[in-house]
Every structure is written in C-alpha cells, then in structure tokens.
Design a protein that fits this description.
Layout lengths: L6 E6 L5 H12 L2 E6 L14 E2 L5 H12 L6 E5 L4 H11 L6 H8 L1 H10 L7 E5 L15 E5 L9 E3 L2 H16 L1 H4 L8 E6 L4 E10 L2 E9 L13 E4 L5 H18 L4 E10 L2 E8 L12 E5 H8 L8 H7 L2 E5 H9 L8 E2 L3 E6 L6 E7 L1 H5 L4 E6 L6 E2 L10 E7 L2 H12 L3 E5 L14
Parallel strand pairs: 1-2, 1-4, 2-3
Antiparallel strand pairs: 5-8, 6-7, 6-8, 9-10, 9-12, 11-17, 12-13, 14-15, 14-16, 17-21, 18-20, 18-22, 19-21
Helix pairs in contact: 1-11, 2-3, 3-4
C-alpha cells in the first residue's frame, strides 16, 4: 500500500506567479498542495484547485477558517508566498500546531515602523526615523526633519510609494503624492493597516543587496546574496537587476550574513524562508527589512540548487532494486532543483533540503516600467531571447492593461533571466537583451479614469 502523500498548506495571492513553480515542484516530489487564497468566495472554484478562499486583510479570521477546515486532518507544513498572506499563515500554523514563525514576529516584519524599532532596540545600524500622520500633509520644519530623507508607507511592498526628498519642497511634493496614493481606491481596497501614516527616515547612502535565506529552528543558512548593480538613490526606488554570486569581498559578505542573522534574531523569526534587504557603506551593514517569505514574483527562477544524484535516487528507488553501472555513475552526478522544490523539501524535512546554489552565475532583471500608460505593443522579444546568456524571457504584463510606473506602481512588465560563467557576464547579457525590447505605453488623458491592474 502506497503511503499517503505529504500535504503542504500554501497561502498565496490569487494572482501570484510563484504558485505555478510550487505546483511543478510538488508534482516532482509527489507532494499535495492545499491552497489558501484571497479570491472571492462567490466564484466557486474557477481554477479547479479546491482553494480555500479567505481575506488576508483579516488574518485572525482567515486563520480561524483554515483551522476549522483542516483541524480533523492537519497538513504536514505551512508556507506563505507574498507579504499579505504571511500573517494569516503564521496564525493558522500556530493554531494547527505546525512549526512556523510566531505571528507577533511576522506582524513586526509587516510594519516598516515596528521593524525599525526592533532593529534600533537590538543595536543594529538604524537611520533616524519617525512616523508621521498624513492628514494634513505635515510641515517638515515642525518635525525636525533633516535632508536627504525617505518617505514610505508603513506596510506596502515592492518599494511602492517610497520616495526620496532632498529639501523642503521635495518633501511637501512627495508627502502630497503619497497621500494621494494611499487614498486611491486601489490601495484602499487592500485594507492595509495604517494608511493614514507614513514613515520618514534618514536616507542611507551606499550599495544595496538582497539576501535569500532559510531558517531551521532559528539557525540561518544563506542561500544567495544578490548584488543590485543599478544605483538605488531615488527619487524613486524601482528595482531592476539582481545578480548572484555577490561581487562583494568575503569579509563584506560575512558582515552581511552576520547582520542578516542579527536581524532575524531581533525579529524573533525561527523557521522557513526569509528575503531581506541591506545597504552597505563605510559605517557597515544596515538592515532595511526582512520578510518571512521567499523572493517574490518570478525572481526565484534565478536560483537553482545542486542536488546530489544519490540523494534524489534514494528517495525514489525501491529497496533492494539492482543497480547498473550507469545508475551507480548517476549517483555521483548532480541535478539542479528550483527554489520552490528546496522550500518544500525543507518544510517537510525531506532529504536534499541542504542543497546549495549551483556554481554558475545567474541574474534576473525585473523589467522596469518607463512610464505609466496602457500597454499597446511589445517588440524585440525574439532578438532579446537570442542574446547569448539569456535563458528565459517572461512578459507578465498583459496587452491593453494600464500599467503604473513607480512610485505609484508596484508591478513589472516582466522578467529576464541570464546564466553565465561570471556575474559580470550575466549582468551584461541582461542589459544587452533589455536593449532589444520596446514597450509602447500610451499615457492616459487627464479625463480618463481607467481601472488599473497590479500584478502579483
């Protein structure tokens, strides 16, 4: 009799790209995914995935619905994709008795203000900061604000609404723009908390990196350090290229890893994936934020992990089966697995969860939005794909949809991927391929009010 498959409860937004990668990984492992999403409960089951519909903006209510649905037969693990589902996932895991991060730690990660307070209390490098009400638009002279500074929402992600101000005039303009964004129907519909406040903090100069990590009972393993070669100096902070392995020195990478460990310990995170952002300058490593989830969008496809062939065979080979010379040789070979498969293996404590990133360099470009407008035409895709080193081009924006540029926007036109012998070659391949692409975006007239579509 075949054993019942392992079951993983996956909390994900209804439009999330990453769920497809998790489906492929689950299929390869013989794992059953159980979905919890924020789609409308009145739609029935349009995608035939038997997902449980909940409201992520009410995490405790969402967790209660999940606990009631799975109390009789709890899943083996819980994972969350994206920021909004993470707190509901933590609450549900706690109620079901499944190893996960404490809800209070996840909630601290969801608030930029609380994250700053935690880092300051832990003695980590932290800029001067304060929360400011947006109604009315504040006068910086009355707040003791120095320049340059950064204004940001308390809970939005993907640098949406984040702006740098170099003087009083720029501060007033940015605050007014942020006020309009947070009052927009699209943002109000998310029901994010604290939309009437912003965080104002000292600008941190320096280079920026992202860290992908995996926590096991409080121990942090760094999966990858991504360099961000494009300067992120403002006035807006739309990200573009991630490249790994990092070109920082061994000493600097060690300092980044130590800072990441200090940040997750300060926040009280214990188990599962983390995605973190840091700035590095002459004073050291500054933690910007830590999210208890994997890297977002399709960016995870930039990571592949070498899995020894022996480990893969031992999980599937029947006991006592004869081995040919070829089969024994395959044991010494390696195959690569996706980030999503690694996360499923880790969540279920399967063999291979300790696989390390492949040796070659890899990079991803989140294709920037040059201006807000309706996407009318895309040209140059074939030429971009012919660029040496390019492994994939995925256009995620849809024709005839209205796409917003930063700081109001938070969704990219698509993703470009490259692999090469060195990080510099991978980065160069992305830039050359991107130069082949042409996106025609028609600006809307001032009298137009089309519905905007944001991509997960």
């Amino acid at each position: 009799m075949n054993p019942e498959p392992k079951r993983v409860l996956l909390f994900a937004a209804k439009l999330g790209y990453q769920t497809r990668s998790f489906e492929d990984a689950a299929r390869a492992l013989g794992v059953q995914l159980l979905y919890v999403t924020d789609r409308c409960h009145q739609l029935g089951d349009p995608w035939n995935d038997r997902a449980l519909p909940v409201h992520f903006e009410s995490p405790e209510q969402a967790a209660h619905a999940v606990i009631e649905a799975f109390r009789a037969a709890p899943p083996d693990a819980v994972l969350a994709v994206g920021d909004r589902p993470s707190l509901a996932a933590a609450c549900a895991a706690r109620g079901l008795g499944i190893l996960h991060n404490h809800p209070a730690s996840v909630e601290a990660c969801r608030s930029k203000l609380r994250t700053r307070e935690v880092f300051r209390e832990a003695g980590l490098l932290t800029p001067r900061f304060r929360s400011v009400p947006l109604h009315p638009v504040p006068d910086p002279a009355l707040l003791g604000i120095t320049y340059p500074c950064v204004l940001k929402p308390l809970s939005l992600s993907a640098s949406q609404g984040v702006m740098r101000a170099a003087n009083r005039g720029e501060f007033a303009a940015a605050a007014s723009r942020l006020q309009r964004l947070l009052k927009s129907p699209e943002i109000r519909a998310t029901r994010e908390p604290n939309l009437d406040q912003i965080l104002v903090e000292q600008y941190i100069p320096g280079r920026e990196v992202a860290v992908e990590g995996l926590l096991t009972d409080g121990a942090l393993r760094i999966l990858a350090i991504f360099d961000k070669p494009d300067p992120l100096e403002g006035p807006f902070f739309e990200e573009t290229i991630y490249v790994t392995p990092s070109r920082f020195s061994d000493a600097e990478q060690h300092a980044i890893a130590e800072c990441a460990l200090g940040a997750v310990r300060a926040l009280g995170l214990l188990h599962g994936p983390i995605h973190a952002e840091f700035r590095i300058n002459e004073r050291g490593v500054w933690p910007l934020e830590v999210a208890p989830r994997p890297i977002g969008g399709l960016c995870g496809r930039a990571l592949r992990f070498a899995l020894p062939g022996a480990a893969a065979e031992e999980e599937t080979k029947p006991a006592g089966s004869p081995e040919s010379l070829a089969a024994r040789a395959a044991k010494n070979a390696e195959r690569t697995i996706s980030l999503e498969e690694l996360l499923l293996r880790h969540a279920l404590r399967l063999t291979g969860a300790g696989a390390y990133r492949e040796a070659s360099a890899s990079a991803v470009m989140m294709i920037p939005v040059p201006q807000s407008g309706t996407l009318e035409e895309i040209a140059g895709q074939e030429a971009a794909l012919r660029t040496p080193g390019i492994t994939e081009l995925s256009i995620t924006a849809r024709l005839h949809d209205y796409i917003q540029a930063w700081p109001e926007g938070s969704s990219y036109l698509g993703f470009l991927f490259a692999r090469a012998a060195t990080p510099a070659e991978a980065e160069a391949a992305l830039r050359k391929a991107h130069a082949q692409l042409r996106f025609t975006l028609k600006p809307r007239l001032k009298t137009e009010h089309p519905a905007t579509r944001q991509f997960a």
